[in-house]
Design brief:
Elements: H1 7-21, H2 30-47, H3 51-60, H4 75-86, H5 91-102, H6 118-129, H7 133-146, H8 164-169, H9 174-180, H10 192-216
Helix pairs in contact: 1-3, 2-3, 2-6, 3-6, 4-5, 6-10
Length: 220
């Protein structure tokens, strides 16, 4: 499939996305997208995925993200289609890319969706890797701050088992986000390569939370 994607489209997409997301303040900035792209290409190398399709999906995966568009579920298909149509990409490739991207985002513990190809699964893994570990912690608090959320409220426990609709509408403090999503991701990696990469990042988050609660309760 990637033989029909010109190399020039990757470079044009990179420039477009960099301009669109540079300076974005919720943790979904250009540097996040670039990290996802680089991780996805590394995973693709080990898992034998198509690197051209992986790179294009990774570069576009946050364009129109509902979290950045007031919950609009149609923003991603609309914006991705508009951009790829403007570049003259064949319509069946455009629709394939849209289908993979809208399946990438986490939608709650019981609302899981999966892309339909190895390349989409690889980008989903790379995106989830960037949500955990040291950078994942930083991004979680950046997003919470941008949305005026508390760091932590001991009177507001995490919710479990949320479906897609409940997860989309749920608002809580940032520490709950670890229990409602981030600590679950290491078990939801699609590829063996990502599972291996996620292990250390998951342990780092567990250690961070232990220290957080010790400091919160005056024990450290």
């Amino acid at each position: 499939m990637s033989e029909k994607i010109p190399h020039s489209l990757i470079r044009t997409t990179e420039s477009f996305i960099r301009d669109e997301f540079y300076g974005e303040g919720t943790g979904h900035d250009w540097f996040h997208i670039d990290r996802v792209r680089r991780s996805a290409l590394q995973i693709a190398l080990e898992e034998k995925g198509d690197p051209v399709m992986v790179e294009l999906i990774a570069l576009l995966h946050d364009l129109g993200d509902r979290k950045l568009h007031h919950g609009d579920e149609n923003a991603a298909p609309r914006l991705i289609r508009s951009f790829l149509d403007s570049q003259g990409l064949e319509s069946h490739l455009t629709e394939h890319i849209i289908h993979e991207i809208v399946s990438i985002s986490y939608k709650g513990e019981s609302g899981e969706t999966k892309p339909g190809t190895l390349e989409g699964l690889i980008v989903q893994d790379a995106d989830r890797l960037d949500a955990i570990g040291a950078i994942g912690i930083a991004r979680a608090f950046a997003y919470g701050g941008a949305r005026d959320r508390l760091l932590y409220d001991p009177n507001d426990p995490p919710r479990t088992g949320m479906d897609a609709e409940a997860y989309k509408n749920h608002k809580s403090h940032t520490v709950n986000h670890f229990y409602e999503k981030l600590l679950l991701l290491h078990q939801r990696m699609n590829t063996a390569t990502a599972q291996r990469m996620a292990s250390d990042r998951h342990r780092f988050m567990e250690g961070y939370l232990a220290q957080f609660f010790d400091e919160w309760n005056g024990r450290a």
